[in-house]
Amino acid sequence: SKKTSLLWEYYKEEVSDPSFVICQVEGCKARISRGKTGTERSRLSNTGLSTHLESAHKKEWGEYLAKKKEKDGLKAAEEDAIDDQDETENLGVPIFNLKSHKKRKSFFQQNLPDMFESQVTYDFNDPRAKAKHQGILTMIVTDMKPFNIVNDPGFLNYSKLLDPRFAVGSDMFYRRLLDKAYINGKDKVKKKLEDADPGAVSIQLDGWSQHHHGYIGLLANYITKGWRRARLCLACRPFEMSHTGENIARWVETECDKWGITEDVAVVTTDTAANMLKMMDYLPVHFFHGGCLNHILQLVIKDELLEKPSIKSLIKICRHICTFSNQSVLLSQLVVSKQMETGKEKRRCLLLLQDVVTRWNSTFLMLKRFLELKPVIQAILLDQDWQKKLDVNLTNADWNLMEKVVKVLEVFYEATVRLSSSSACISDVIPTITGLLYTLSPGGDREDHGVKDFKRKLKASLTERLGAKELLEQYSIATLLDPRYKNCFFQKKDAQDQAESALLRLLRAEVDATPVSLDNSAAGQDVLQEAPVGGLAGVLEQLRQKGGHLRTEDDQDGRHHVEFCIKEYLDSKLESVSCLKYWEKQDLEFGSHRVKGALCRLARKFLTPPPTSTDVERLFSAAGLIAADNRARLSPETLEKLLFLRDNILVLNFELDWE
């Protein structure tokens, strides 16, 4: 392809791989990527070329800008010559893609003549201009708008009406601000992580691909000193290597080292793909793999329920009717009119829901909507014309099977929603598994007739995939330390006893690692209180108050006190408040107590990981909306910056600085 950019005076394409260029500035020879290897030349980006020239070669960058200005001037003169020949009513005033200053000037002169002529625009360094530029960049990032929105006539018109003195920058101007805001944003996120000094961190990991580029997302979870859950996006980096377990592990460890959290990471939450499982073989030994529970539930449901021939056939029929309804205005209107005949308002009428093949929960919602519209659909299928058009039918047996499938999936759907909450914790895993297994137990009523077989298979698959979770310390200790669950949701007594023994061992180790000090809190009833001014007399008075029994933390009764502390906690009633609110209160009251304070620290560590990798999947859902088909040329590096800033926008207080 013809190279028209002046940047090519400073670069040369690599012969073996045209997606890379070599800097020709004397003494440099830097190798710059323009996109993924194998990408068509027309889709390669020059952004990296200008960025490198600006940052590494100031002199050449100045020369380039001067030449570009001269070239743009010649081009503007040519356009003026063309405009002089224009004989249309509006004299060729542009109204779309107002990219250049000249086009914007013509647009404003035609649209807002009085306002345009009477105002002098702000200087770039004016705080009022900076605030507005910052607002536009924030809008582009948070609302996932393309950069060229600043060339849209409606946006420019609205901006001019809000403040006639403010001149909106070009799309390239905001691209350059994004680069600087990204660097400053990373510094702010790193400082927040350093200031938090969480001690215990869990990470979420997932991979994604779009427009021939691979990406890996990395999120960090921790609990703040104020007992609130915090989540930071550390990276959504282009990953052009093969997604093998070894390559991913090296990338993860490098990123953790960059952010200074390698020693603090305890749990890595990912899906259960083979490469993610293999990755754990190459990571530090203290990294524990926590499989995404939602992903495992999806595998169970797909393999043991949705693939059953009778259910698969039923779903196919429902999917066909939904597809027909989406494509037929008459059928969708008929569904609404049938509901209105029963006295329902039009705005409250329901439509059929089309499922997404890869998402079982959407299939559940489709079937549930069919049951909600059962009388309507039955009436339509009784019409011979519609039955002929649809070429399907739903028998009473089909409806009965649908009811039973929805009934079984209802509890799975509820579990998935709960586990996907931002407040969900790894402590929810064992109770969720126990609850699901209980609901899949064969029932004695007639309603359960006909579904016993796939209930049995679901239960067997669930047990096989998840039954051993309660034997793993990361899950069992977290469950014990959740005041909503404690030791009440273990399926096997052996697993419960093993978990309690492990908690006792861990608490003893935490207490032993805590410096011996006297407890000054009122809660430390078994600890020697500070002697009053009276010296020995005060100590004797404390002995009298305690009936002659006074225990210090470092004597032989300390071991007994650890056991007593755990027993007291486990024997108390289950709490209804969230686990972090409970431990926040405990930390405020007993934080200085040697044993109970140690228990609070264990709670902070084990209650940190989430049960799923839903958050990182949401990150890539946003990525899919940004890197849509109409933005296929968006470079992976720019997408990374947009995702990083958007996901951390609350951490940055919606302030994207570039200075």
What would you say this structure looks like, in words?
The protein is 54% helix and 8% strand. With 659 residues, the chain is of the alpha/beta class. The strands form two sheets. It has a five-stranded mixed beta sheet, with helices on both faces. It has a three-stranded antiparallel beta sheet with strand order 1-2-3, covered by helices on one side. A hairpin with a 7-residue loop joins strand 2 and strand 3 (31-33). Helix 11 (309-327) crosses helix 12. It starts with 10 loop residues before the first strand and ends in a 12-residue tail after the last helix. Mean pLDDT is 85; it is low at 86-91, 518-533 and 543-557.
Give a brief outline of the structure.
This protein has 659 residues and is an alpha/beta fold. It is built from 26 helices and 8 strands. Helix 10 packs antiparallel against helix 18, helix 16 runs antiparallel to helix 17 and helix 20 crosses helix 22.
Which structural class should the secondary elements be placed in? alpha/beta
Individual helix count? 26
Query: Could you tell me the strand content as a percent range?
Result: 5-15%
Q: Unreliable segments (pLDDT under 50, ≥5 consecutive)?
A: 86-91, 518-533, 543-557
What is the distance, rounded to the nearest whole angstrom, between the alpha carbons of the first and last residues?
A: 38 Å
Number of strands: 8
Strand line-up of the largest beta sheet: 6-5-4-7-8
Q: Look at the structure and give the mean pLDDT.
A: 85
Largest sheet: 5 strands, mixed
Give the overall silhouette. Answer: globular
Helix content: 40-55%
C-alpha Rg (nearest Å): 32 Å
